[in-house]
Each structure stands twice: as C-alpha cells, then as structure tokens.
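Late entry, evening session. Most of the bench is empty. Finally got around to the prediction I had been postponing all week. Sequence below, unchanged from the version circulated by S.P.
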Amino acid sequence: MIRKPKKIRKKRGTRTVGYGRVSGHLNSGQKGGVGKAGRHKHLWIKTIIENPRYFGKHGFKRPQKLVYSPKTINVGELDEMLPNLVKRGLATFDGKTYQVDWEKLDYDKLLGAGKVTKNIVITNLSAYSAKAKEKIEAANGKIVEETE
C-alpha cells in the first residue's frame, strides 16, 4: 500500500529542517530557558512534580546559645613576653621582680602550661588556674587577686 512519505524525509539535509533560523529549534529559548529559569512561571508544573518544596521557607532553626570563651594565656608565654611588656609600658622591672598589672593586659584568664623562670608579681588577677598559681609561687612570684 502506498503511503505519503513523511515530511521530515523532505527536510533532511537542509540547514534548518523547516524551523526557520538556525536558532529557531535548538537554542535555549526553545527549551524554556537555561538552568532553573522559569521555575515560578512557565515550568511551574515540572517544578511541582520534581520538587514541591522548591519555593518557600520550611521549618525553623533553633537559636544557638552564645558561648563565652575567655581569652587565655599560659604562664610560659607570659614569662617569655615580660621583657617586651616592659618595653611597651605594660609591666615594670625593678632589677629582680617583674610587676604586671593584669587589667592592662588584654587577657581574661591565666593558665598553667609552660615554665616560669622569672619572679613575677601579678596584681588585679581574678581568673587563673591552680597550676598557674603553683608555678608562679615556685619561682618566688606572687598573685595578688583583684581588690574590690
């Protein structure tokens, strides 16, 4: 039985295969845009089917507690910094003892790691570890707690 040949057979071999300009069939405009373009417009049905939670806010995030972490320094680091602190005017040296006013320094707590080789007298110190006090007193130093 003779049938009429399909139209595409006639168009094969031509540049545009019946779609006008070259951009008339293969360009992004024919696909409805590039990427996720048109999700809230002409590609709405596709969006709802593939990912119904694509738009909007869903649920909530619990507020996090603010965590305070004090700025700390170890006694070993403080011991090494003392000559520099004297130069900057944050500590004094009277020949054998370093006098440090803790309120002038930008630290909250003194911790006990490291070695203490110098005599240190720290005033106005409120937060320190037991090991820090032990090491400073072992080197003939002293901690004077803050006076209110």
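Two things to note before I forget:
The mean pLDDT is 90.
Residues 75-88 form the longest helix (14 residues).
Will write this up properly tomorrow.
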